[in-house]
Design a protein that fits this description.
Helix content: over 70%
Order of helices and strands: HHHHHHHHHHHHHEEH
Strand order of the largest sheet: 1-2
CATH topology: MetI-like fold
Largest sheet: 2 strands, antiparallel
Radius of gyration: 23 Å
Shape: globular
Structural class: mainly alpha
CATH class: Mainly Alpha
Strand content: under 5%
Low-confidence stretches: 268-274
Distance between the termini: 42 Å
Amino acid sequence: MSQRIPNILLSLLTAIFAITWIFPVYWAVATSIKHEVDVTSENTEIVPTSMTLIEYVRVFQESNILTWYINSLGTSILITLLVIIISMMCGYALSQLNFPGKRILWWMVLASIMVPTTALVIALFVLIADFNLINTWAGIILPQIISPVCVVVFKQFFDAVPRELREAAILDGAKEHNLLLNLYFPMSFGITAALAIVTYIGAWNQFWWPFIMTTQEEKFTVTIAISSVQDAFGVRYAREMALAVLAGFPVAAAYLVFQKKVTNALMMTSGIKG
């Protein structure tokens, strides 16, 4: 009996959190399939009585959503690839190589995690503007390719790999790049996949930096394009929600598809002992 009460309370708390999280998503979907008249009426219904997909059709007909999708997809994929490659190489160097200033560099990486990204906005904007990268993919991508958290994760994982494996490979004549590509990378595939998915989702959902970097509509990503779906009468709420649902669908689908694989991969890689 003493165990059942905490379990019931925990289940109730979990249910409350789940409802709190899912209701805005439900409200966005419900609003997107309503007529605009029903959305702005005084008697707003939680469950739509009449449903339509007209606002989805208008989003595709009256906006550059395909261009925005290409911008989001292209920048997100490139950011993910660069973050994983750079973070893996940095983590490997900090874990397995010996060079002057290694400890200082490691503490700098840890310290950079505590620096809020918003504190760097002005410096990054001036730097990107000096290189004439405003309204370009490079301007969106470059400030996002350094991830101290990913470096730390890779470094800690490589630290846990048994040294005997490295020493055996060196005796067989393996060089550092062979060790990274043929030994450490296959062993860290689960961690790499997990970080790649999280990085991709974060890059797709990024708002403030693409918003700062782009002033031309054809350079918008999906997240900042949501605010541009207006007409002569102002904000169209049903259309806004339709675009929001379309913007969030790819990352939601990716997470649902890869969730089990990432979890299993993390469980397998966590079994390595130092």
